């Protein structure tokens, strides 16, 4: 229904209004629909790709039609009255002002209508909450401002990664957005590492958060569930079509709230198995030997990647910080010969200040060691010192 | 009964008794004010000031959202602006605005000489000034104003700077002010009505305020509790909401919305009252179904206590919880529909004219109903899962708060300002204000329904390019809407306050009934010093 609707005359009329009232913004950005994500000037819910989303879409159409009919009926009466019962056309006021029968009728009728609305909704609520018999269970962790995915049970068990907004798009946003004439169809929706699931399988999501409440929402699936620190919630979906589907964090979670998108890639079961194999190989190749002893140059290079992925959002690529975010460039803490203070800040975070530093203990020993070494040897910081992964392992104890 | 009644009589001509030592002039008249009329005026000027401040914030937000990308403000400031816009409009503009109406109109409508506790009334108003200063100056503290949304969800509030604490104090003070105001209104209505006015003959505006005042007393302490727990979590090592210490972040939401949902009705019930006065006046016909209006208002108030969970469908309620809150919420549609039907039945076969108050009242019924229907759609848990925390919600609550509460206040201003200022506002300007506001309001907020259905989350400083056009339209509309309100302030409110305009007759509206129109024009500073004797309908003074 949705797809037919999006090409209807209503859509064209809306597009015309758009052209007239905001010519500039329209001409400047010739953007196309993003399949699985938002369409240009989309008027209704996303085309559903799960049973639940289909039900939601149908419920919404039902509600829209009932409400529109009532609205038109009630206000036809009002405008008829406004037209006919005006003083200027010489209408004299009647003097009725109560009727018990009428009151009972127009209390009972809306009551019956809302019962009629609630019944089909009840079925969908019950279906939405049924997370039993999942084929694949994935833990989703909301963090400021990335999503962590850990495949807990089912094919791909053991895979885990963090998914963040493509760094270049974040920079593009600061620079004023896509340039005039350019079209970035997945602007603010492109991630470095999408979640991948097989088609036609029941995927159970277990959600939690590390710091504040986030919300994992993918409209095409009809899934929207808060990820709450200290608590575990679950929801599920079964995608019927292969493709890329997009969503965005839906609960305000701090300054980068607009920059933690969700990208779910739905693959055929053959492709999914290939992805699992590749991912496992990649993980074993990437796994750092925790006992390896690194040199400064090697570790700084590694740290640059970690910094860009995790730290640059707040401390900026030039290490200068912004507003309440402390600069790292020239920071006495970073330059201090006692490495332990900086290690502790990274492992435990820092409370109480104006802008809290989150804990980064979910990063590996090597990653923390690398990023500390990077900050000690970048910009104007030239300590020449390094921190070995083993020191982080020691500090964790 | 109250201090005011025991004072010596001042005589009736308001402007001649300024030299009386009981009626101070100059700044003392306002700082020491005990007259409900002066206090009502101050409340409304305060509300208008906050409306302008909150409005500027809204326009900064819309300017940033005109195009994708960050052009004017960074995401931190953006979040501060959305948070403060919400807090200022709810606690600074809408609530005090209606308290201003209550102060002015309740004594006049029930034949009382003043509010029951005149000095407490003064205190409730003047508390608002330090509270507003604490709230607004948060922008200048280290880290800026609170940026976690007006709902102040934990544990994000634990990450905020010192402005979070000043805002919490501000809300405490505003809460104390509201509770005192509510007690004052309840006591005034229950004890100081003219002896010939039983409750079931009282006009609708005091009725809706009586119910609102009970809601205020019931829920403002709940808000105070929630934010105090936030405060102790922040500074005194408690862990009510801090998951890291074993607290429950969702508990905050339960407490907040136990306050927050009745709060919604605190902001709309007095609006229903205003509309219920204006529609009969300009239809030249009595309000249809007075009794059922009183019962509908009361049932909305009672139901408002058991629907808070619909703000939290995405937190992961169990099935039973979702169903309960869905059913209870949908039930509210019934008494609300009854009210709409009654207004239309009042208009039916009347003899209508469309001066500005009636235009705003009809505009209210039409546009508020759209907000009501989107509320019903949002109440459906499965649909809410799709559009919770999207622009659909933003559209919904602006339809009920701007086109609802704010339009009702405009309607009330045009209806009663001839009594307050002694002069008639300029009808052409009033009509211009109405059409300008109505059209620009819809241009601003209607496209947000589409944005929400398409999945654009609220409180986003930047957005995917597919959302550009509707955002651009909304931004253009918002500036027109903003200018309409500046026009209202500068070219309608200020001239009437300065006394420019035709002197208002005692009965500017030939269909209006009620004690406020029984008093001489211009209105004396002190009215109903002796309880009036009323006719059987309790709308006219006899003898």
Task: Tell me about this structure.
The complex is a heterodimer of chains A (397) and B (543). In chain A, 42% of the residues lie in helices and 15% in strands. Chain A contains 13 helices and ten strands. The N terminus of chain A is likely disordered. Chain B starts with a helix and ends in a 46-residue tail after the last helix. Helices cover 65% and strands 0% of the residues of chain B. Chain B is globular and about 70 Å long. By secondary structure, chain B is mostly helical. In chain B, helix 4 packs parallel to helix 13, helix 6 packs antiparallel against helix 7 and helix 8 runs parallel beside helix 10. The interface between A and B is large, with 121 and 109 residues.
Task: Tell me the helix content of chain B.
Answer: 55-70%
Return the structural class of chain B: mainly alpha
Query: Strand order within the widest sheet of chain A?
Result: 3-2-1-5-8
Total beta strand runs of chain B: 0
Number of helices of chain A: 13
Mean pLDDT score of chain A: 87
Instruction: Pick out the low-confidence regions of chain A.
Output: 1-7
Assess the beta-strand content of chain A as a share of residues. 5-15%
Order of helices and strands of chain B: HHHHHHHHHHHHHHH
N- to C-terminal distance of chain A: 58 Å
Helices of chain B, by number, come to: 15
Helix-strand pattern of chain A, N to C?
HHHHHEEEHEEEEEEEHHHHHHH
Major beta sheet summary of chain A: 5 strands, mixed
Separation of the first and last Cα atoms of chain B: 24 Å
Major sheet characteristics of chain B = none
Biggest interface goes to: A-B, 121 and 109 residues
Q: Indicate the mean pLDDT of chain B.
A: 92
The radius of gyration over CA of chain B amounts to 23 Å
Number of strands of chain A: 10
